[in-house]
Amino acid sequence: MTPETSRTMRSRHGRPVHHWRRDLVELAALFTAVAVADAVANLIGHGPDGPALLVVSAIALAATAGFHTWWSRRHGHAPPVPDSDTGARSAATVRSAGQSDDEGSSVDGPVGGPGALWRMRTTVRDEPGSLAVLCTALAEARVDILSLQTHPLADGTVDEFLLRAPETLTATELTRTVARAGGSATWVERADAHDLVDGPTRVLGLATRTALDTAELPLALRQLLGRCTVRSLPGRPVDEDTVPVEGVLEDTVMRLRAPGGGVLSVERPYLPFTPTEFARARALVELDGRLGPRIPRGRDVLTLPEGNDITVRRADTGDLEAARAMHERCSPGTLALRYHGPVVDADRYLNHLLSPRFGRTLAAQTTSGRVVGLGHLLWDGDETEVALLVEDDWQRRGVGAELLGRLVAMAVEAGCESVYAVTRSSNTGMVAAMRGLDLPLDYQVEEGTLVITARLDAAQVPVPVAREDGRVRLGGAPEHG
User: Fold this and answer.
1) Domain count, the chain
2) CATH assignment at residue 419
3) pTM score > 0.85 for this model?
4) Residue 332 and residue 347: Cα distance in Å, rounded?
5) Same domain (yes/no): 306, 451
6) How far apart are CA 416 and CA 456, in angstroms?
7) Residue 279 and residue 250 share a domain
8) Band of the pLDDT at 361, cuts 50, 70, 90?
């Protein structure tokens, strides 16, 4: 159907229009044309000048057609289409989507092309059309909305966006654009490709990781809520009164009952938590509590340079007695290098170190089942600490370096930006093991205490390659506890 026919069949009320006058005129013209044709045929067929009249008629038709062609080329124009017919703008008033009415204004970069990724959160009024005004303002700034989540509040709505904006658009300009559209308390930060994952898919992935490993809960909370500090506080009688079963939400702090006892404190000073985020965190903690203590039971058999085999596996509080027995076999010097102080009460640290609530622990044990090495990856708020203890008779065989490499690989997988080790400056074995990671290191020395920080940006941690018999051959890197 042509546009002209479409316009003919359309009325203001959406009903087809039947032009009966036009049909009557067309029918009369048809009968007139038939009568004229019959008269011409009779004149040419029965008159003496029939052939001459036929030639003259042909010449007249050809001349008329030539004149019409010349006139059309010189004065040709398209019929005007009124704006009120379809609501479309005329060609002179059409502009690109998002273009400003100011003359010469433009923004580099196509909406669907490469650009900067931003995470943005802003509060809008709980009124019909307020979100539409905000989205229109973003479109005019050539900002593409990749995802949107809403967090209802009592006096408004917090909208969380994942945006792709032109590279030339700064965070300040983006905030001003949102403010002009009615947004308030706007927070903006750079995002990366990991944020492109669908929200429900990401939450299900975090729930799966938490279900497989108790130690994943603090990490899952940090990834669920963004940059925040998660601390596991020991249980005290006062906590049972101040933290109810459903938890407590106080602006930038939420406190939840830890499944194994105590309290989980989550802090995010730069951005208040919403009730929706609080409900998500509480559901994740509840899932962890229902599943109970659990750790992955995988283990690797490693071959030392002299041919002995050891097994590296995850450890938890169930290995408390074996860890205490290893403490008794370690020399005071080795324990002093590990715990940086009096070693008389070193055993009291073990229950905390082995708890999956505070991190992950790897144990190295012999074929007889005796634990000869422990490596800890500890969640220290929003930082991560690594610590090693290797029994004296098993030092300088590559056990500590193997444990450290695996702990750092776990930290990289968990998305940690860095790990740090606290030891004495005289602990050359730990220093050598950290250097063996082949990562950028920072050193800080205060009163004989050495803090070594390894940055994990784009870290490529080597994975041990197993032989055909399933064992891994270790080198002979030196280490002390």
Assistant:
1) 3
2) 3.40.630.30
3) no
4) 13
5) yes
6) 7
7) yes
8) very high
Task: For residue range 203-233, list pLDDT tens digits in order.
Answer: 888 888 888 888 888 888 888 888 888 888 7
Cβ neighbours of 437 (radius 10 Å)? 20
Domain end residue (candidates: 291, 322, 350): 291
The per-residue pLDDT for range 148-195, each reduced to its tens digit, is: 888 888 778 899 899 999 999 999 999 999 999 999 889 898 887 777
Residues 75-87 have a mean pLDDT of 39
Instruction: Look over the chain and give the mean of its residue pLDDT values, rounded to a whole number.
Output: 76
CB 250 within 8 A of CB 404: no
CB 50 within 8 A of CB 43: yes
Q: Do residue 348 and residue 307 come from a single domain?
A: yes
The answer to whether residues 337 and 430 belong to one domain is: yes
Domain boundary among 247, 272, 291: 291
Indicate whether 266 and 339 sit together in one domain.
Answer: no
Region of residue 423 (phi > 0: left; psi between -120 and 50: alpha; otherwise: beta): beta
d(CA 31, CA 353): 105
Q: Give the domain extent around 342.
A: 299-473
Which amino acid, 158? Answer: V
